[in-house]
Every structure is written in C-alpha cells, then in structure tokens.
Input
Amino acid sequence: GEKRGPASSKVQALFFRQLAVLVRSGISIYDALDNLGPRTQHEGLRKTAIEMAAAARTGKSISSIMERYPDLFQFHVVGAVKAGEKGGFIDIVLDEIAYEYEQEMAFYKGFWFPMSLVITQAFAVCLAQPLFPTVFPNAQFMQYVKLVFLRNIPIGCLVMLGCWLYWKWMHIPQNDVRRDRLTLKIPVFANLSRQRSLAAF
Output
C-alpha cells in the first residue's frame, strides 16, 4: 500500500484527542472521522482518516485501515483501537492513546537542552582540537583555519549526520524490537521506557 507517515506526537495527540471528544459527545465514529479527516493538517493522517471514515460508514473496523500504515500508526495503537472496537469502549481507548502521545511530548520536550549541549561541545572540540600542542605546536593562524574548517568541522558534521540517519533508521517500524532492546540497555532511559510502556499498557 501507499507509504504514509510518520506524524509527530503533537499531531497524533491532537488528532486522537479531537476524535475522542467527538465520539464521547455521542457522534458516531463515522461522523467524527468524516468531520475531522478533512481538517487534519498532516497529509498522510488526513488521507487515512478519510479512509477510516469510509470504512466505518460501511460497517468495517477503522483498525483494519490503520494497520495498513505501520509508519503512521504504531502496532500497539492499532491493537488498542481493535480492542476498543470489539469491547465497545472505543472512546476510552482514543482518550488513552491521546494521553500517551501527550506524555511522549512531555517526555521529549526537555531534550532540546541536552542535545544543544552535545552539539555545542562537539563544535567546541572541533574548534579547540587544533590548538592542542601535541597536534599543532606552532600558532600559525592559517594552519589552524585549515584544520578547523577543512577537517574538524566536516568530520563533526558527518558524525552528527551519521547519528541522525541511524536514529531515523532505528525508528522505522521494522526496527521497533531492535530499538526497544537497545533502549532497555541504556541507564536511566531503560527505567523511563519501562514506566512509559507500563503506563501505556
């Protein structure tokens, strides 16, 4: 099928929160999706919501549409919706999914500060390393400039690009298990990940 996604936690939280409010107010899941779908800003999520509305109109499950797009909906989200459809508590499930995405937003909200420190330190090393006496004993300005801009900064940028590409690769659906195993081996983050998973469960 067509590849769609991913959507940010903010977009997903808003979508599921609005959907939950509409369903809880007594509107059918079809009318809720029919109303919300065209107004959703994320293109992949908008197209999928319209498909979900069409499925609901004919009596089909919306989870059957969601599971077609693993890049857009995580498997546990699809499973939760499927359980809500079968158990008749879809409004509660939608609320819980929205809450989980909101918690994820809160969890990663403060990450910009440590990330900025890491990037700043990386560039500081790039700028300072040529001054180390063992590497560059003579204070020659042009030699320093060459080392910084023609060697250190390009190497630093390549390392950060490699880290970013690895992070993106680890976040594709096929690598969910591999990513979770790695996360559970990292101090602090392992406990946070366990707590978040238990709360979602």
